[in-house]
C-alpha cells in the first residue's frame, strides 16, 4: 500500500476536476468580478495569453497562468482610501494590479509529476498547481467559438492544498500511527496567527485579511483576555459582494462578523454603514452601497414572498451586476463562527473537521476558550511529507 501511494502522480488527483475558467491579464477588475460571480470556487485564474484574439497564435508553452483573483482581493483593493472615494473607477483597473508579486504562488506542473513533488511545491509556497487535463481523443475542443477554459487547444485544472489533504485522507491507514496522535504531540500547532480585537475598527484588519488570503488562513477575533469569539474569514468574505468593502471601512470587527454572517446583513448594520459613509463624505462608495442594499432588499422580499413555492423561490433574477441576494452568492456560505479543536485532538479528527467545513485551517483553543494557535493544511502536509520521504 505504501509503495502504491508513492507511485501516484498528479494526474491521479486531477480525475474529475473541472477545467479552469480564465481571464487574460489585460482584463479589468470589473471583468474579474463578473467572472468570479459565476465561478464555483470563488476565484478565477489569470493568464498572460490573450486567446480571445483569432489572430493570436501563441505557442502552448507561452500561454501561462500567472495568478488567481478572488472576491477578497477585490474587496481589499476597494478598501484603500483612494478607491473608497471612487469605487467605480477602481474597478476599471487591470487585474494585473491584484496578481501576487510573490513568485511561485501558482505553479505549472506536468501530469506525470509525483505526489511527493506536488506536496514539496505546496510547502514551498504554491497555493495552486496548474495541471494540463488529458483530453479524451473523442472530445475535441471547439476552435470556432470562444472557450473561456481553452488555451491554444488545451485545458487545465488546478490542485489545491485541500485536494491533496483529501487524497491523503483516503489512504490514511498508510500513515499509522500518525493519524491517532494529537496535534500537540506532532508539533502541528502554529502559534503565529493573525488576530484583531472584537471592538477594534475592522479597517485595521484589511492588511491581515489580505495576508490571511495569501496564507490560506483567517483572522481571529478575540476579546481583551484572548478568548476566541469568532473570525473574519476570507472564505466567508469571498461569498459577499465587492461592496462589503463599505462595511469593513465603517464597522468594528465584531459588527463585521455579524454583517457577513450567512443570511445577509442585519438592517440596523446596513443603516449604520450608510450613516458612517455619509459622515465621512464617501459619496462614491455610498452610492454603490445604497444601490446594492436596495436591490438586495428587493430580492430578499421576493424570496420571502415566494417561500411557499420552491419553484418560484429557486428562480430569482440573476442577471446584471447585482445578482446575489443579501450580498451573498449562490455558492455555499459559512457562518463567521470559528471552527475549533483542542491541543489533544487527533490529527485525523482535525483533518476531517477542516475538510467537512471546507477550510484550510482549524483554530486551537484551550479549555477556557483562550486561543492557543492554529493548525493549517500546510502544517499537516509537512508531517505527511516527512513520513512519505521516510517511506521512499
TrEMBL record:
InterPro entries: AMPK_gamma/SDS23_families, CBS_dom, CBS_dom_sf. GO terms for cellular component: cytoplasm; nucleus. Gene3D superfamilies: CBS-domain (3.10.580.10). Residues 332-390 form the CBS domain. Transmembrane segments: none annotated. Coiled coil: none annotated. Keywords: CBS domain, Repeat. This is CBS domain-containing protein.
Amino acid at each position: 500500500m505504501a509503495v502504491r501511494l508513492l507511485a501516484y502522480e498528479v494526474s491521479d488527483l486531477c480525475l474529475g476536476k473541472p477545467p479552469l475558467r480564465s481571464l487574460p491579464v489585460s482584463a479589468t477588475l470589473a471583468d474579474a468580478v463578473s467572472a468570479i460571480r459565476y465561478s464555483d470556487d470563488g476565484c478565477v485564474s489569470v493568464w498572460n495569453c490573450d486567446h480571445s484574439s483569432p489572430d493570436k497564435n501563441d505557442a502552448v508553452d507561452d500561454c501561462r497562468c500567472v495568478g488567481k483573483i478572488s472576491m477578497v482581493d477585490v474587496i481589499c483593493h476597494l478598501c484603500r482610501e483612494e478607491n473608497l472615494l471612487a469605487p467605480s473607477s477602481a474597478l476599471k483597473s487591470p487585474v494585473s494590479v491584484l496578481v501576487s508579486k510573490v513568485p511561485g504562488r501558482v505553479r505549472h506542473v506536468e501530469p506525470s509529476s509525483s505526489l511527493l513533488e506536488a506536496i514539496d511545491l505546496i510547502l514551498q509556497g504554491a497555493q495552486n498547481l496548474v495541471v494540463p487535463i488529458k483530453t479524451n481523443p473523442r472530445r475535441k475542443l471547439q476552435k470556432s467559438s470562444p472557450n473561456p477554459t481553452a488555451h491554444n487547444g488545451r485545458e487545465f485544472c488546478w490542485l489545491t492544498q485541500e485536494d491533496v489533504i483529501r487524497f491523503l485522507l483516503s489512504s490514511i491507514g498508510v500513515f499509522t500511527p500518525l493519524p491517532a496522535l494529537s496535534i500537540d504531540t506532532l508539533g502541528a500547532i502554529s502559534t503565529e496567527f493573525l488576530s484583531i480585537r472584537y471592538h477594534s475598527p475592522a479597517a485595521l484588519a484589511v492588511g491581515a485579511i489580505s495576508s490571511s488570503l495569501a496564507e490560506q488562513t483567517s483572522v481571529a477575533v478575540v476579546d481583551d483576555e484572548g478568548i476566541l469569539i469568532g473570525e473574519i474569514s476570507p472564505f466567508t468574505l469571498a461569498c459577499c459582494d465587492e461592496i462589503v468593502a463599505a462595511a469593513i471601512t465603517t464597522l468594528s470587527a465584531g459588527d463585521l462578523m455579524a454583517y457577513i454572517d450567512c443570511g445577509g446583513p442585519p438592517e440596523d448594520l446596513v443603516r449604520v454603514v450608510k450613516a458612517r459613509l455619509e459622515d465621512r463624505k464617501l459619496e462614491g462608495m455610498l452610492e454603490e452601497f445604497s444601490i446594492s442594499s436596495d436591490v438586495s432588499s428587493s430580492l430578499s422580499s421576493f424570496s420571502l414572498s415566494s417561500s411557499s413555492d420552491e419553484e418560484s423561490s429557486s428562480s430569482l433574477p440573476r442577471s446584471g451586476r447585482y445578482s446575489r441576494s443579501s450580498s451573498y452568492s449562490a455558492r455555499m456560505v459559512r457562518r463567521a463562527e470559528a471552527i475549533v479543536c483542542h491541543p489533544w485532538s487527533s490529527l485525523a479528527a482535525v483533518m476531517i473537521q477542516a475538510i467537512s467545513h471546507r477550510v484550510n485551517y482549524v483554530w486551537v483553543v484551550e479549555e477556557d476558550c483562550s486561543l492557543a494557535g492554529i493548525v493549517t493544511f500546510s502544517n499537516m502536509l509537512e508531517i505527511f511529507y516527512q513520513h512519505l520521504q521516510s517511506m521512499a
